[in-house]
Amino acid sequence: MTIESSPTPVVELTGITKRFPGVVANDRVDLRVAEGEIHAVVGENGAGKSTLMKILYGMQSADEGRMQVNGSEVRFSSPAEAIDAGIGMVHQHFMLADNLTVLENVVLGAEPTRRGTIDRRSAHRDLEELGRSYGLDLHPDDLVETLEVGERQRVEIIKVLYRGARVLILDEPTAVLVPQEVEELFRNLRELKSRGHTIIFIDHKLAEVLAIADTITVLRQGRTVTTVDSSEVTAQELAELMVGSELPAPSTEPRASDEHVMLSMQGLSVADADGRSAVDAVNLDVHRGEIVGVAGVEGNGQGELIEAVLGLRPTSGGDLLLDGESMAGWPVRRRREAGIGYVPEDRHRRGLLPDAPLWENAMLGHQTQPPYARGPWLNRSGAREATTRIVSSFDVRTPGIDTSARALSGGNQQKLVIGREMQAGPRMLVAAHPTRGIDVGAQAAVWENLRTARRDGLAVLLVSADLEELIGLADRLVVMLRGRIVAELDPATTTPRLLGGHMTGAAGEATDDEGRTP
Amino acid sequence: MTLRRIALALAAPVCAFTFSIALSSLVLLAVGTSPLEAWLEMLSYGSRLETLVETGNRATQLYLAGIAVAIGFRMNLFNIGVEGQYVLAAMLAAAAGGAVNLPPILHVTLIMVVAMAVGSSFAGVAGYLKVSRGVHEVISTIMLNAVALGLTGFLLRSWLLDEADTTLNMMTPEIPPSGRFPNLNGVVEGLSREITRGRELWGFLLVAILVGVLFHLFLSRTRAGYDLRATGLNPFAAEASGVHPSSTVVRAMLLSGAVAGLIGLPEILGDAHKYDLNFTQGLGFAGIAVALIGRNHAVGVGIAALLFGWLDSAAPILDVVGDTPREIVSILQGVVVLSAVVAFEVVSRIRRATEARDAAEATLPTVAATDGSPS
User: Fold this and answer.
1) pTM exceeds 0.80
2) 8 A C-beta contact, residue A297 and residue A504
3) Which member of A19, A231, A238, A421 has the lowest number of beta carbons within 10 Å of its beta carbon?
4) Is B356 on the interface with A (CB under 8 A)?
């Protein structure tokens, strides 16, 4: 592993294409990363960033395209091969064993041995040496379970360095960090850069990207849009590159909402596992026939807010009213039966039974009600008929309703989830990232379904990280930051830039939101 | 499509069993005996009517044990405590049955209710510990097995012992004739020939079949059964759909324990009429194997119970004839379990891949259409 000073890019990907059933995740993507730079890869959710990195790290193989590392053509069939080529990855979700020490986690899988036993002494020495030289402050003998999130991330970085990586891929490293920790991380990254390491950094927070990156590659819908020098671009230009130069036409439909409040949050607070307020005294009403969009950088309380509405998470203060009635003490089932539909953020985790047939998935969440149930019994024929209707009216592409949900593509799974919620005729729909990770066609279908339902008087609470989606669909936008609602905006007069500013807290209370016209 | 599905479903157990026979044969060859001779011996002894009756009896108990375990498995609960639950339940039920005199049907019903209540509440302890204190059910049920066996011995010695008995056997007072379950010898003899005296096909077989039918109906036809299965398939999605996680855990443990309570009854009601030191133990653990091979499915568990029951009943001949050790049957059973688990996994991967391909094909027309004409 020697530092080369040749002008050849350290990593060069050309024409990378990766298809999944029904989706093209990467469509002839190009990426050139120069030696010793911090290179950010930005794009919306579903733009293909993670897939590209997984291909570079050998976790998936590209269907087409070429990969070159240090000028020579490579093809990785496993992360081990990528590591051998000097490429390491720090995952967004840490892969650490809590009950082992920092040292043990770092050497795990690459243990230095001496006469068949682990050579702790030399590992200890190497680790302290690494920590000292990169300014990564860690105690090798600390148990990982006692570490803060930022420290865990440093363990992950050391783990990668210990394996001799010269190129580090960081997958949304700031998503889990608080601002001070982000500062610390950036200091570490600059230190790594000064020692000749190359860093590929995935993110969608533009302010951070501009603060740390030398070069920025923008992906949109699986394609490379451009690669720019970070000093030559502004946050607004970046945002426009990410969502496409033409921002979606705001919904021209007249408001369907009336004054009837369907869901009311009154000073709603939710505590997280550590007792801090994940949601902090939120007041928000959703009217009949209205889509209220909740924008925010992930991890600012939107997930907790939704789970509290569903009853999946206890509230620590305030009240929740459905159609004027307090839902305090209602279990999830009662809320579902009262007409709350749910499109979960992670359909695999919260929304589907992957190994069950479609018709059993269609009744999930509605299994106590007709047509799926008759008294304490399941109504199998009713359920199968209802599923057939969902499949045809929501255009779920499947060989049949006995196929297991796992077999379908993401877009078709999501159409099934949306379909089953709509079919049940909810009064209130709670939807989190309803189009995340699905192809463009399915996305359009989901949007159309939401618009139609809104027209028919459905109240929708829509949480999304997709600014285009929020601006295009919502009647009213609120921005959540650190558990609070910090702004309320009119989507007709909002730009992604303005929204982004509020989301990161950088924006100004000075900006007059309501008065602006595009 | 359907034909392929059936073929796949059958392929796994057939392959697993063939592989197990082959491996056990190699073991026999290695110790220097003729596998063919041993298998033929077992086949000829195993096809006698008396052995088949024995098989039916054994399978009845194994089936109940398999279903008890399967109820837990279907929602990812590992009730390892079936063993303790059924032994304790059998003893207390036998004691209760021996202590009273009731009209026939009522008497048997009482014994069954006591057995199910004991098994259920003992399993409920593990369920309660899991939801209230987060104790993993594998740990708690294993420990509760020791408690149950100790408790059984203690109760038998101190309170429930039959004072009138003069032999050295420790046993509960004998259950009067009104608390016994009729046998099915009449049915068998009508179809075949007379069974050697002293052998009976226990009538409890019918109860086991009924339990299997109810198990199947519960899981596939009721809301509660759907909730239980959904929890097993994806606990997070089940919770979001309105299933209450803790109460489902407790409910599944109570049900599993109730069925476990029945395991000892075929023997007690049909044959022994008391709980004594000859009572068959170990069925709870065998039930885990039976449930695994039977894929936690009512019919599958039945086939697995018959297979294991037959192997258990036919094995003793190896002690009498030839020089094959009968332990080869235990080896065979062990290998069957392992290879069945592997074979099922292989088959389910093949099935998933085929399904994904079919589903992808179903999507193709749209992809082509959107590519051709953007609308």
Assistant:
1) no
2) yes
3) A231
4) yes
